[in-house]
């Protein structure tokens, strides 16, 4: 338009071609520039060029505005390409997403923060709103949210999946367990299709029967965490020892002390019994060999190899290092260990048959029953109480080729039909004869965390009240305001899904509960940061091998004696165990990996030690 205007100006005025082009340009950019023209032809020409210039600029501004609007709409919808590398990629969204982001952000605290990318088939604004409302402590971490389908390779490219340091696949809650696991399998196939190899993939599954197929498809790339199986094992272990649930919950995650693995060339050739007393700010728990074999609580005579990674419990991966020599005289260690080995010690395993009541019905209940059968004494009775018709239960318990409960070696399974949230029906149960009561969320409401927790809490409070009324128990409390453990002669452990329910449970002075979603999220975060941790978690929660135990201090020493934590560790080691911390009678919480391992204290009745021991 400038050229056309210049030609027109050249024809109607007596100026050179260059001057005509310059005049035309001034008319375009400045609407008042033509006011100095003297004759009609020049004014008409200038007016025409000015109007054309206005239309031109309006068109350009419109195009720019549309482009900016389209770009902002793309950003708002979460469809813009993510230019990241070495980031943590979260695929999918569920109730575990927020606690998972909290744990991952906590893990990056010492690094000044990290870079997280979230992609799910939800509106970007909805996910960002949930993150904002949950008040996640980011600690310098940036979170980028995108809307997309993880089973489409084009969408995976948008979030730079191929460049991610680790990928976490969350199981969708709006699908049945088998359908959800099938969705996770398709995501893994897509990741295989883009040749992802810059890290590993942590996959949450909901059915243990699908783990083998995921291992085949994922190969060395995948680490699986089966949520239902993980929580089921945790509930069983917690039920065997009151107070253990909170200790295990604190072990899983990055809020305090956690598991770390590192090679220490200076420890090559040193026996593990010596390595145990080389760390001031950590507690060695085992080794991960070069071939991937995980050995927890090895024998004292095990010799560290140059390529062995030492497994420790520590506050941070940079907070500990080995000392050149043991922290305590080796002769003193051997003397204490030998002295304790001569003391009588008995693991607190059941010696008589038990009566166990299971309230509620989980999809993996048959797996829980099988685990219980492995740990209870012969002659034990397990009663299943649920609204599910008894005629349908046998089919559910034997689904997918599981062993019939009639073939259990130690426990007999009985059935009772009733509503778990009805006082009238719960009063028919002989709860005073029970040793352990499990309160599980119902299969039919597992996708609605608020309703599931509501039913669990109702059953919990009703059963406690029914027992108290039958026994006419007075209100008893300890000095710190918590419930006296002697008030209930049985262990009652409940499963809680929503973290917001925690305050309600605390107000009722209930200590034995498992925060399902938070614990699974913590486990996913730990495996994401170090995939070898998955082997540690599986052994700790299995019926065989080493496990975390809460033992009375009187099992190791004479009550009233004064010992430092380092000395106690040597005494405990005399029994082949590893002392991880302690729980003082009346204290609000346990102490894991004490910072002061040298100051002696007097150990009294009720004090407990947290030990790693082989069952």
Walk me through this protein's architecture.
About 2% of the residues have low confidence. The chain is an alpha/beta fold. α12 packs across α20. Helices cover 38% and strands 18% of the residues. β4, α7 and β5 form a beta-alpha-beta unit. The radius of gyration is 33 Å and the shape is globular.
Overall spatial form: globular
For the record, give the distance between the C-alpha atoms at the N and C termini, rounded to a whole number.
89 Å
Structural class: alpha/beta
Strand order of the largest sheet: 3-2-1-4-5-6
Q: What profile does the largest beta sheet have?
A: 6 strands, parallel
* Share of residues in strands: 15-25%
Number of strands: 22
- CA gyration radius, whole angstroms: 33 Å
Q: Main traits of this protein?
A:
alpha/beta; six-stranded parallel beta sheet; globular; 22 strands; 615 residues; 38% helix
How would you summarize what this structure contains?
With 615 residues, the protein is α/β, with parallel strands linked by helices. Helix content is 38%, strand content 18%.
How is the topology of this model organized?
Layout: H1 2-12, H2 17-29, H3 40-76, E1 88-91, H4 97-107, E2 115-120, H5 124-133, E3 142-147, H6 153-158, E4 166-169, H7 177-193, E5 200-205, H8 211-218, E6 222-226, H9 227-240, H10 244-251, E7 258-263, H11 272-275, E8 282-288, E9 294-296, E10 309-314, H12 330-341, E11 355-359, H13 365-375, E12 380-386, H14 390-397, E13 411-417, H15 423-426, E14 436-439, H16 449-471, E15 491-496, H17 502-507, E16 513-515, H18 516-529, H19 533-540, E17 546-552, E18 562-563, H20 565-573, E19 578-583, E20 591-592, E21 601-602, E22 608-614
Helix pairs in contact: 1-2, 1-3, 2-3, 4-18, 7-8, 9-13, 12-20
